[in-house]
Structure formats: structure tokens, C-alpha cells
Design goal:
With 430 residues, the chain is α+β, with helices and mostly antiparallel strands. It is 18% helix and 33% strand. A hairpin with a 2-residue loop joins β23 and β24. The longest helix has 26 residues.
Amino acid sequence: MSKRNLSILVLLVITAALFVILPRLNHSVKEQPLEPVVALDTVVAPKPEPKVLYGIVVDSLIVIEDKIKRNQNIAEILTAHNVTNEKIFQLAHASKEVFDVRRLVANRKYTLLCERDSLKTAQAFIYEHNPTEYVVFNLKDTISVEKKQKDIEIIEKGIAGVIEYNLATTMKELGLSAQMTDNFVDIFAWQVDFFRLQKGDKFKLIYEDHLVEGESIGSGKIKSIYFEHFGNDYYGFYFDQGDGIDYFDEEGNSLRKALLKYPLDFTRISSRYSGNRFHPVQKRWKAHRGTDFAAPRGTPIRSVGDGIILEARYAKYNGNFVKVKHNSTYTTQYLHMSKIKSGVRPGTRVKQGQIIGYVGSTGLAKGNHLCYRFWRNGVQIDALKVQLPPSAPISEDNVEQFSAHIQDMTNQLNAINFPVEEAPVFASTK
């Protein structure tokens, strides 16, 4: 066989072998899945939230914050930021019905929103005239003035205290306001003599705290209260039956009376009702038909109940005084005022707690104080010993809801721990 024919034969054998072997190899090899091709998308960063102050987007503006300086006025502030006198005049005129620009108070915060130009031209002036309200003076395009309210967050807080010297001092040391002390006293005024407290008397409170931008601006109402006085337990629970604020004991009896017991914020008694007292001015013994409350000059005096003004005038011995007829049974009188509140005159009607004058020493008086007098059926009596009927108790329709409410409040009070206390001794009433 020639070499040429031999080569052809070898080629044919190899080809035949491949036709037999290749299909078998295809079945023996496992198919591997293809790796997915991932397309890399362009990552788009989210747009940042615009910065908003006082309801205005300020991203493109310069923000300047400061406080009003003594004797500084709005014209002085705005002219320094390229606002013309004409525009300031227009602004003052536009604000007349909203806010008097002449009443800027030193140390109150203000904010200027200015253009990013070389003169930092003011586009808006915001003045915070109290912790919850602010006034926006818009200087861009059409001048406008608007008063706005900040969001107020109300949270509940619990606290406990043990009286060391007196209630007011203890409350202050706990960081509670004088108004909270007055509210405390008003709740139990007819159950407890707060001028005869005992060292070691203790209390628990659950109350509302009002926050603006995370900062406390003052306390709201007391939600529930426990007071231990001379070994006796007193409870007070706030509950609204639809006719306003009222406090009830654990049995649903109202703690409120028709008249307040004290005509001014919690203070001290300098002289009690007496049939025979040495008069500090006349230097002789005589009856004292009232209760004297020592207090700083200008302390507000409040009417202890709804009524009609019988007298509001000056007299030689009484000084500036107001007399209020509450109903056919009770009448009260308030003497030695530094001044009678504007608008209080005979025939006008007053509400319980309404301010009718201010503590002073007019008339036959030595030192600033209020002489408070009380009549029942035309006869003067000791205001601190009078017994008045309480307001309406919890109605039958509200008993179930009230029971659930006080159970919840009692559990919260029980969860508050008292601070370490010492053995009780008598506390000062001053």
C-alpha cells in the first residue's frame, strides 16, 4: 500500500472514532450555569431634606441669630442689613394689628434671614416674644407680618418629696414652679391646713410638663397627687366630667368647694382672726376680724369665688379695698391694696381666681400684707374655719370610667419612690 493511501485510511479511522466518542463526552460533562451579568447602575444619592426655620426654607440664605440688646429697636437691626427706612415704616404699619414693634424686650431671641450678597440684605426678621410664640416679619416682595405658635409637647412626669422646712421650699428644690405649689395647695386647701405642716410630711405628684424644642417652658395641670400629713393619707385625682377642671378623692368625692380658701398665692399668715389682738399701728388691744397674709408689694390678689363687686375704693382705715358678694350667703373683702386692678368697679362681675388688686400697705397698715375678711349671712367669721359644701361628686354615668382612671393613676403613684427621710419634727410655717 502506498504512503498516500495509508494516510487516507488513518484519517478515516480517526474521523469515525470521533463520531462515536464526542456524543458520549457531551452527556458526561455537566452543564455549568452561566454567571449572571450584573449591570452596575449609577448610584444616585438622595437629595438632602431642605433646612426649614420658622416655616421658611433657608438653604440659600444666611441665618443670623442674636438677642435684643437693651434699648435696641427694630429699625437699628434692619438698617444694618440693607433695609430702607421706607420699608421699615411700612413694616411697622403692617404689624399694628399683630405685634407692636416698639415692644421688643431685651434678651429675647431674634433671627435674621439674609441674602447671600455682600450687604447681607435681610429678607425676614423673626422675633420670639415668648417661649411658645414668635412673629415673622417678611421683607421680601410684599411686606407681611404673621404671629405663629410653636409646637408644644406635653409629657407626664412623676416626682416625690419629703418636707424639710416648708412646702414651697421643697417644691423649689425639686425644680417645680411656684405655680405648681399654688396648684398643690388649691387641691387640698379645704382638707389640709398648709400653715401647720409637719416636717416629714411627704407627697407624690404626677403632672404635665410642657416642652418646646425639647426645653421645658412650664408645668401644666397636676394629674394625680398623694399627700401624707400627720399620718393621714390624702389623694387627689384630676377628672373632667364635662364641666371643667375638678379634683376628686379615691371615693369620687369632689375636693373643690364653692370658694377658694386662700385669696392669693401660697404665702404666710402674719396674723389670724382674733377677738382680741394688739394692733401694730394703734398700739392697743382690739378685735381683728380678718386674716392677714404677708406678701411682697404687688402680689396679685384673687377673688375666692364668682360674684359681683359691691365696693372698690379707698377708705381711711381700709386703704384701697374691694368687697365681693358671692351669693345670698357669702361676702368677702380684701384690704390695704397697693392698687385696685383696672376695670374692677362696683357692679362688675368677677370669676373665681380672677385678679382684683395687688398687695400693698395703704390705709391703717404696717408693712405689705392683705387683710382678708369673710361674711356668712352678714356676720363676720374666720375665713380659715368656714365649712363649705363640696362640688358635685362623680356622677353615676362616670363611675366606671373614673374607677379605671384612678386605678391607673394609683399604680403610677405607687411606682414612685420617696427619697430618704428623717424622723418627723414640726416644720416652720414661714
